[in-house]
Amino acid sequence: MIRHLVVIIVLILKVPTVMWAHQGTGNVPENTITVIEREFVTVVSEALRHVGDGSDVELTVASHPDQSWFRGLALTAAGSRRLFIVDGAPNSIEIVPRNIGTTYLATDNDDTVVREVRMLLDVIITKEGKTHVETVAPSPKVTRCSRADALRTQSLQHTSTHAELPPQHRTFWDDIVEPVVFIAAAITTAALLFTVRSQ
Hints:
By secondary structure, the chain is α/β, with parallel strands linked by helices. The chain contains five helices and six strands; from the N terminus they run ααβαβββββαα. The chain has one domain. 42% of the residues lie in helices and 27% in strands. β3 and β4 (112-127) form a beta hairpin. The longest helix is centred in the last third of the chain and has 27 residues, at 172-198. It is rod-shaped and about 95 Å long. The model is unreliable at 5-13 and 15-26 (pLDDT under 50).
């Protein structure tokens, strides 16, 4: 009898875990730093085709909370074009981050979210006294994933690489059934212990 009750209690306590484990399946996304670094270097390198390989240029990045990180990425992009960064050079490149960041959207499954990594920036190139402005806006990188994977693969290192997840909705299970199940299990466990000691 006692053995059967113990088995029932174990099964009851496993229910929330099993239910949670079968929710929120989706693709495991890349780290947000990896996504932004790759996109930034790719789009800036493409924009720098107007400068001409091997040119001397002055490089600046407009004010932004992630300015130093973006400057490092811009240097990588310039290096891919074999550009030489020289202060005071007659040719110049200015990177203006306008909207680079990460957002999360709710889905029909409360344990999953849609992550969007977006990028919008201007590349201002001055060459031989002429200024060319190229606005770069690649399609957002969208991934549906579990909340756990979203938290695990975002980075708090930069402002652009993390965001708040949408709040989870409370359910009938959260508010009523789950507490009742745990209370009942606790009472049953206490009764079992008392019975065993009495015997």
